[in-house]
Amino acid sequence: MKIRLDRTVCDGFGICAKYAPRYFSLDDWGYASLIGDGTVPESDRDAVMRALMDCPVHAIAEIGERIFPTPALPLAQSEDPAEQLKTEENEAEWGFTR
User: Fold this and answer.
1) Architecture of domain 3-62
2) What is the pLDDT of residues 9-64, one digit of tens each?
3) 21 FRET partner, CA 20 to 30 A, in 65, 70, 81, 95?
4) Which residues does 64 contact at the CB level (< 8 Å), separation at least 6?
5) Does residue 93 carry a pLDDT above 90?
6) Whether the model pTM is above 0.70
């Protein structure tokens, strides 16, 4: 995991330094600074994620490659798209009621 800190957004709440003091320090005015290059080993991931999620101004962000699941393709596609419309006849199949 790799993180970055946007010091221009930081409002000096200090929550990050409370939860992850190995990765964030506070300057004389209470604003956060990132310690190191932002690389976080798996063993410290929970503490840093808590700091990231609890930051009230979202000054901390996780950076890096995200892996998104490949969407599943429909099993069978009919040539007539009208067959897939929600209608009164198939309302139980689609799960809606009036």
Assistant:
1) 2-Layer Sandwich (3.30)
2) 999 999 999 999 999 999 999 999 999 999 999 999 999 999 999 999 999 999 87
3) 65
4) 1, 2
5) no
6) no
Query: Tokens representing 25?
Result: 């320090």
Amino acid occupying residue 41: P
The tokens for 59 are: 């000054």
The H or E element spanning position 46 is helix 45-54
| CA separation, residue 54 to residues 24, 28, 47, 60 (Å) | 14, 22, 11, 10
Q: Which residues are CB-neighbours of 92 under 8 A, at least 6 positions away? A: none
Number of Cβ atoms within 10 Å of the Cβ of 14: 14
Cβ atoms within 10 Å, residue 83: 10
